[in-house]
């Protein structure tokens, strides 16, 4: 299309498996398109990513004021634009839930403090974890949060509940007095590059723990015991942020405690090796899987936020986005 062409542009944008068609003037830019998407689909510009196939690939904010008819192969039948992003109302709902959880925890703490005769019923341990009471029922994950913009969030919720209710995990959390407000799943597309994939994150010493539940293409779930071992690693970050000797000792201890309390396997460990000692850590990195960099500190946990700005692995992310979209399309056809 020539720059002098005054014919309007008609573009179809796919979001969560649903196509949306927009008409724009011939002079419209990439920034104009993202502004229109923010208005029409209520997805803030800073939360938007555009996967444009076959070229130019992944576009992230800040978006340039480049003419669309110069950037996109508008006449190509293979042109496909996929929008990745979470609507503002979903983000607001999540933040509102976090505020409500905090308010209830503070009210409960105040009530316990007023009625207790002991010196303190609510303690802050040396690890930085806040316990809600002296009851062992408080040492758990208080909220399970699947990602609703991914396929089959109900299955993810069941997976998270299985981890929360795992006898070994419950025993270890009670022993170490771990009380974690939120256990959620990790979006593989946000934590995968061409060189590595992150398996878990612990934010602010137990504020939120994220786990990679799904396969990279969203077409299934990873092995349960592997995910549970990742959870042992992230629980150790409730005490130690850095991967030092104290951290590895605590990780091995938690893993042993989880195995001993796992009644499904008779309280016996399946291996005599400690869980992810430093040598194992290096082997993981060589194999392309990283448990995590270290305990993540600072900022706020926001659903759908952009967490990886290194720009690598664009082809892989495009493949995963297509696979997720195809999965949702098949689910809709099955249920229709």
Automatic annotation (TrEMBL):
List the GO molecular function terms.
proteasome binding
Enumerate the Pfam families for this protein.
Answer: WLM (PF08325)
Instruction: Give the source species.
Output: Aspergillus tanneri
Q: Which domain of life is it from?
A: Eukaryota
Which residue range or ranges hold the WLM domain?
132-329
PROSITE patterns attached here?
A: WLM
Q: Which InterPro entries match?
A: Ubiquitin-like_domsf (IPR029071), WLM_dom (IPR013536)
Know the name of this protein?
WLM domain-containing protein
